[in-house]
Amino acid sequence: MNISAKTSKIFVITLLSAILLLSISPIAIAQGQGSITILDSLGGSTDPAAGPTTSYDAGTAVTLTATPLDGYVFVEWVIATATGSVVVTDNPGTITVAAGTDYAVQPIFDVVQQVPGGIPVTNYDTAAIVVVQPSSGGTTIPPPGTYALADATQTTLTAMAADGWQFSHWSISGFPYDVIHGGDTFTGVRTENPYTVDHGYGNTYSYQAVFTQIGETTPTPAGQTPTPGPGIGGLSNEMVIIIVLVVVIVILLIAFGVFAMRKKH
């Protein structure tokens, strides 16, 4: 093999290696970054603003700040990825970017209502914001919605169980955790009914009445259908239907057998 042939082979191998390296490099770079897309939302603005997707190096802590319009209040961030979604109620909130992960962020704002008979709110920044979540197994007074309170000490939440259900507790979520609720330091579960809100002004907290079926202790999550209760003789309704169908089939088979025997004779 002459020198020119060797040189040609070295050149070809070098060229192919360079092409392979160039093709792999963008993938390696992309795997070291993630992206965040802020979606538009009625009722407020965000920082970063909604718009084009932005890429960040892995490990970057991105702060999300929501600013509601007059008459609206920030409720939560819904952060979705290819593996699912989470809800964040902190404002500002933070996303620590993971490599190769794309985040779609939806800020949720809600129209603020006045509690019937309550003191009119003139400054939403200093009002106590109460978000009443819907429940399975009952309803509440006031009904589900977002409310601004000028005087939280005068506002109570009342849970009313539907037939076959009983009130269990209030599930409370929000931040910060050192705010007074009902005269005591914040706790995520309270059993008083009615419950006096009395939480810190300028803060937003969510309240959900949790009900259980009578005779059970495990609450049914909101939005899910409760497990059917006992049917006849302690059996579930589904089991009763299955037994009836089996009995009908057996009777038809016996009748068919008798008819066949008579036909032979």
Mean pLDDT: 78
Biggest pleated-sheet summary: 6 strands, mixed
Structural class: alpha+beta
Cα-atom Rg, whole angstroms?
Answer: 31 Å
Low-confidence stretches: 6-30, 222-232
Number of alpha- plus pi-helical segments: 2
What's the end-to-end separation, in Å? 101 Å
- Order of strands side by side in the largest beta sheet? 9-12-10-19-14-17
SSE sequence, one letter per element: HEEEEEEEEEEEEEEEEEEEH
Kindly estimate the percentage of residues that lie in beta strands according to DSSP: 35-45%
Categorize the overall geometry: flat
Helix content: 10-25%
Comma- or semicolon-separated keywords:
flat; 265 residues; alpha+beta; 22% helix; single chain; five-stranded mixed beta sheet; six-stranded mixed beta sheet
Account of the protein in words:
There is one protein chain. The protein has 265 residues and is α+β, with helices and mostly antiparallel strands. Among the domains are: 35-110; 113-213, no CATH class. The chain has two helices and 19 strands. It has a six-stranded mixed beta sheet with strand order 9-12-10-19-14-17, with no helix packed on it. A hairpin with a 2-residue loop joins strand 15 and strand 16 (184-185). It is flat and about 95 Å long. 21% of the residues are buried.
